[in-house]
Amino acid sequence: LETVRLMIENRCEPDIVTYNILISGACRDGKVNEACELLEQVKKRGLEPNKYSYTPLIHLYYKLGEYVKASDLLVQMTKRGHKPDLHTFGAIIHGLVAAGEVVVAMTVKEKMMEREEMPDAAIYNVLMSGLCKKRRLPAAKILLEEMLDHNVQADAYIYATLIDGFIRNDDLDEAKKLFELTIQKGMDPGVVGCNAMIKGYCKFGLMKDALSCVNRMIERHHHPDVFTYSTIIDGYVKQHDLDGALRTFGEMVRRKCKPNVVTYTALIDGFCRIGDSDRAQETFKEMQVHGLLPNVVTYTIIIGSFCKQRRLGKAASFFELMLTNKCIPNDATFHCLINGFTNNAPTAVSDDESEEINKPIFLEFFERMISDGWGHMAAAYNSIIISLCCHGMVKVALQLHDKMMSKGFLQDPISFAALLHGICLEGKSKEWTNFIPCILNEKELQISVKYSESLRQCLPQGMASEAPLILQTLLEDHSLKAKTG
C-alpha cells in the first residue's frame, strides 16, 4: 500500500501488472487485509482485475480455511469473464490440501476435468500427498492410474510421495515394489525417492537394506544429504546400536554434510537410552555452539531421560530452559514431567537439588504444594501451569488446564491463581472472566491470594501483575456476601 501511495505521489500511476505483483507479495506474506485492500483499489481506479489478481487471494483464503470467501472470489472472477485456468485450479487445490480438506480438493479436481481442464503433474502430486497423509493409500493409487491413463507423465517426486505414503502406512512391501517400478520405468528416484525408501527400511529396523539403498544412491552419483544421514543415525539409535549411529555421524562430518537439529536430537536420544546423561548434555551444548536451537523433541527426550533416572531437579531445570528459550512444550513433555514427579518419591527431588544453583519455578512450586499437603499429580500439573504462565505461554497453560479438568480434577486455587496471573501479564486483566470462571469458596480464595503473592515475587524487576488485586477483591466480595447473606 505504501508502494502504491509513493507511486501516485510521484505521478506514476500503477497498472494492473504492478497491482498483481503487490497482491501476490501480500498474499505470500499472509497479509490478507492488505491484499483485499489492493484488490479494491484496482476496482476503484477503473482497472480490470484478472485471474492473476484473484488467484493469490483465493489460494490464501483456502489456506486460512476461509472457504466461503475463497468461493465468493472465484464466482466474482468468473462473472468478470475470467475463467479459472490450470494455475487458478492448482492454487485452489493446493490451498485446500494444505488446510487438510482433501475431499473438497478432490471435488475441485473433478469440476476442473468437467471443464476440460486437465490437472498437471504438480496438482496430482499435491492431491496424492494429501491422500497419503490421510492414510487413503488406495485412493492415491487410483489417482496415479488416472494420471497415467490421461498421459500425464509421473515424475520421481510423485513416486516418492507414494512411497513415503506407504511407509507411513507401515506397508513396506508396497513401497519397495513402487521404488523398483520407478527404476524399471527408467526414472532416477533421486535423493528424495531414495530417502523415502531409506526412511522405510530404518523404520522397520532393516539397517543393512538402508545402507544398501545409500550405496545405490551413490552409484547413481547422488550425494547422501542431511536427511539421509539423520534418518540412518536415528535408525541405529532405535535399534540400540549407538556405535553405528556415531560411526554414521563421523562419516557425515567427513563428507562435509552439516548436521541439523534432527541429527543432534537423534544422537542425544541415543545417549539418553543408555543413561549417559553427561554425553547427552555435551551434545546438547555442541549443537548450540553450531548455531542450532534445540526443538521440542530435543528437550522432551532429555527431560524424559532425567525423569527416568529420578534426577528430577535436572528435569525441572531443562524444562525451565526450554520455556526461557521460547520452545513450546507438547503433550509428550507434560507426560514425562507428570509421570516423573508423580511416580518418584519426594527424596528423588531433594537428592538432585544439590546440582541446581537457581531453583526452577516448577521445582519451587512443586515442593511448596507437596509441603502444603497436595497430591503429587495435582502438584505436577499445577507446577507446569505456573511455569507456562510465568513464561508467557498462557494459551498452552489454558489448554493443559482443560485436559487436567477432563481427567477429573476440579478447579483448584493454585491453577486459578496461576492462570489469572498469566492473563494479567498479557494485559487482559479486564477480560479475565472470558478465559476462566471462578468457582472457588472463601477458603480457596485465601489460598489463591497466598500463592498469587509468591507468583508476583517471581516477576522480573519493573513488571507488575493485577492478579493479586483481583483476587483480593474477589475474596472481599465473597466475605461481604457471606456476612450479608
Which descriptors apply to this entry?
485 residues, mainly alpha, 72% helix
How would the blueprint of this fold be written?
Layout: H1 2-9, H2 16-28, H3 32-44, H4 51-63, H5 67-79, H6 86-98, H7 102-114, H8 121-133, H9 137-149, H10 156-168, H11 172-184, H12 190-203, H13 207-219, H14 226-238, H15 242-254, H16 261-273, H17 277-289, H18 296-308, H19 312-324, H20 331-343, H21 346-353, H22 361-371, H23 376-390, H24 394-406, H25 413-425, H26 442-457, H27 467-484
Helix pairs in contact: 2-3, 2-4, 3-4, 4-5, 4-6, 6-7, 6-8, 8-9, 8-10, 10-11, 10-12, 11-12, 12-13, 12-14, 13-14, 14-15, 14-16, 15-16, 16-17, 16-18, 17-18, 18-19, 18-20, 20-23, 22-23, 23-24, 23-25, 24-25, 25-26, 26-27
PPR repeats: 15-49, 50-84, 85-119, 120-154, 155-189, 190-224, 225-259, 260-294, 295-329, 377-411
InterPro entries: PPR-containing_protein (IPR050667), PPR_rpt (IPR002885), TPR-like_helical_dom_sf (IPR011990)
Family: Belongs to the PPR family. P subfamily.
